[in-house]
Design brief:
This protein has 425 residues and is an alpha/beta fold. 44% of the residues lie in helices and 13% in strands. Bound molecules: pyridoxal-5'-phosphate. Pyridoxal-5'-phosphate binds next to helix 5.
Length: 425
């Protein structure tokens, strides 16, 4: 074997301890089957943009209206990101400065509500996000969070409940979208309810932004007042977020992000968002988005055929929520066993979960990462078989079976190098 130079030579010299940890993480991401639906692999180009000297620059304000000098290049970088966001999502206004999805949502509260006001969102255990008014979040303590869920019989959003709560509680803001919602979000139905009660409708498309950009999920644009998204999930950009809206809300949103909530934007992240949006505008990204959904549907089919219970009975998007109750394996036990088998998932509550949030009944899986590695629908029966074997091994405490799966997984992963990793060249 030839010794090849370290992937990050300066870091390797300056801080070998840290460089070793990053190297180990690269190998872990290369060798394992990553099924966490909020994760992905960014391209080498996106990764490079995040590691540039743009990170050295302070730029409080917006392009052409900054509080610091020397913005000749930064203004152009941010304008590029904004214009690309507007083109990809078909919106009139985009703010690319929010540090991440949670601060982006907090900026929405700041723009459209006052402390103590009522907001309506999907409850966390039903698939919503913490920042949609859940109790332990600042959004649920500083605001009056009222929560809707899904129907027990269908596992789908109960629009009768949403409408009744909206009429009764008169929320200032209604959030739709979530973190464990395997079905298409009916933005039109939410839009109708929001208009009836005079609420601002926020479509939080953090999970599905890449699917929306690639035409594999309907767009919220005609129905939502504000679109909030992270940039690092299906959109395959750096860790960051965006707020988008019609021109009428531009001022309120910009003011809320800066100076309302944040200081200087992370310019290196802004640049990487611009790169990711350029990639998302390419025809190949449409193929990617549709392949993510095709893979999730094929994986759901294969799991159903193996007797797994899926929340809502399947999926329309990138995500599958497995209820392991009938398998008599708690979600956490299954998730930890699968991790030892080289299959990375997260344990998750299922709607009406009789178990506790830190020890719930389900696992949540998704196909964005494996699709980024070029795996297609023909591989999904194999993935389902590994999950099935892994869950059975978890029930029996069969470590040998888990180790065998890990070897098989690593073999398939070696044949499908991930974008951006040193091993991918
Ligand atoms: C991931 C996510 C967020 C929060 O994003 P962070 O970057 O983790 O703060 C907000 N809303 C939804 C629906 C999400 O899935």
């Amino acid at each position: 074997m030839t010794a090849h130079p370290p992937a990050h030579p300066a870091l390797h010299t300056a801080d070998p301890e840290l460089a070793a940890l990053i190297g180990a993480e690269e190998r872990l991401q290369a060798d394992t089957l990553r099924l966490i639906p909020s994760e992905n692999y960014v391209s080498a180009a996106v990764l490079e943009a995040t590691g540039t000297v743009l990170q050295n620059k302070y730029s409080e304000g917006y392009a052409g209206r900054r509080y610091y000098e020397g913005q000749q290049n930064i203004d152009l970088v941010e304008t590029l990101a904004v214009e690309r966001a507007k083109a990809v999502f078909g919106v009139e206004h985009a703010n690319v400065q929010p540090y991440s999805g949670s601060p982006a949502n907090l900026a929405v509260y700041l723009a459209f509500a006052a402390p103590g006001d009522t907001v309506l969102g999907m409850s966390l255990p039903m698939g919503g996000h913490l920042t949609h008014g859940w109790g332990v979040s600042a959004t649920g303590t500083w605001f009056n969070g009222v929560q809707y869920g899904v129907r027990a019989d269908t596992g789908r959003i109960d629009f009768d409940e949403v409408r009744d709560l909206a009429r009764k509680e008169r929320p200032k803001i209604i959030f739709c979208g979530g973190t464990a919602v395997p079905r298409t979000i009916d933005f039109a139905a939410f839009g109708e309810i929001a208009r009836e009660v005079g609420a601002v409708l926020v479509a939080d498309i953090a999970h599905i932004a890449g699917l929306v950009a690639g035409g594999a999920h309907p767009s919220p644009v005609p129905h939502a007042d504000v679109i909030a998204t992270t940039t690092h999930k299906t959109l395959r950009g750096p860790r960051g977020a965006m707020l988008m809206s019609r021109a009428t809300h531009a001022k309120a949103i910009d003011k809320a992000v800066f100076p309302g909530l944040q200081g200087g934007p992370h310019n290196h992240t802004t640049a990487a968002i611009a790169v990711a949006l350029r990639e998302a505008a390419a025809p190949s990204f449409r193929d990617y988005a549709h392949a993510v959904v095709a893979n999730a549907k094929a994986l759901a089919e294969a799991l159903l055929a193996r007797g797994f219970d899926l929340v809502s009975g399947g999926t329309d998007n990138h995500l599958v929520l497995i209820d392991l109750t009938s398998k008599e394996v708690p979600g956490k036990v299954a998730a930890k066993a699968l991790d030892r088998a080289g299959i990375v998932v997260n344990y998750n509550t299922v709607p009406f979960d009789p178990r506790k949030p830190f020890d719930p009944s389900g696992i949540r899986i998704g196909t964005p990462s494996l699709t980024s590695r070029g795996l297609g629908t023909e591989r999904m029966p194999q993935v389902a078989e590994w999950i099935d074997r892994g869950v059975s091994a978890a029930a029996k405490g069969d470590e040998e079976a888990l180790a065998a799966i890990r070897t098989e997984v690593a073999d398939l992963m070696a044949a499908h190098p991930a974008p951006g990793l040193a091993s991918a060249g």
